[in-house]
Design a protein that fits this description.
Layout lengths: L2 H14 L16 E6 L4 H8 L7 E6 L10 H11 L5 E7 L9 H10 L4 H9 L4 H5 L5 H13 L10 E6 L6 E5 L22
Parallel strand pairs: 1-2, 1-3, 3-4
Antiparallel strand pairs: 4-5
Length: 204
């Protein structure tokens, strides 16, 4: 039995016996927050449990390393949708210790691509098109710095609501302990509207 067959078989029973009922909720987060976290397998259940979150409490966006790689990429778009369309009032960026992205070797990954059938011509085409493939695949060295950078990208984004707090935390994937890196409630927010300074009036 393939993994797909196994999942579909279980799903049939899940629906038939109404095992979904405890999870029924709305699309709006009850705690009005959106979380950007890493896709690490250790966080699937641990992160919500460590934050006392249940189904329906939050919106969760995941990326490798909890990175916002591009200010107008799909991750940033998802965060903006959560804020503007789905009633999230706070953003949490949560990285974790022992993250795989901190040790990603672009050269080794490209070698794996070749070993699994990606041709040299394809790689050359990507490079010639202006994409810095190694830079795009490269991870980060320090998780605290990475989390801080992602928070900066989000909070300073020209389309982000200025008064939305953007918090940065790091979770221990073994114990669930959270370390605070950025307290969004204490960060000054940029004003996205430019107000022209008016010359001071002098009394005549």
């Amino acid at each position: 039995m393939t993994m797909l067959d196994e999942i579909l078989k279980f799903n049939g029973s899940f629906v038939e016996y109404k095992m979904y009922e405890p999870y029924i909720t709305t699309k709006y987060p009850d705690k009005r927050i959106v979380i950007l976290s890493c896709m690490d397998t250790r966080l699937v259940e641990l992160l919500p449990k460590a934050m006392n979150l249940r189904n329906g409490d939050v919106k969760i966006v995941k990326s490798a390393g909890a990175l916002v790689a591009h200010p107008f990429g799909s991750i940033m778009r998802s965060l903006l949708v959560a804020v503007y369309a789905l009633q999230a009032d706070e953003v949490f960026v949560i990285g974790h210790y022992d993250c795989g992205m901190s040790s990603v070797d672009p050269n080794a990954m490209i070698d794996q691509m070749k070993a699994r059938g990606i041709s040299e011509d394809t790689l050359n085409t990507i490079n010639y098109s202006g994409v810095d493939l190694k830079g795009w695949l490269r991870g980060f060295g320090d998780v605290a710095t990475s989390v801080t950078k992602s928070c900066d990208v989000i909070s300073n984004h020209p389309l982000m609501v200025p008064n939305v707090p953007v918090h940065g935390l790091i979770i221990d994937p073994n114990t669930g302990k959270l370390d605070l890196i950025v307290d969004g409630n204490k960060q000054s927010k940029p004003l996205h509207t430019t107000i022209k300074e008016q010359p001071e009036k002098t009394e005549e």
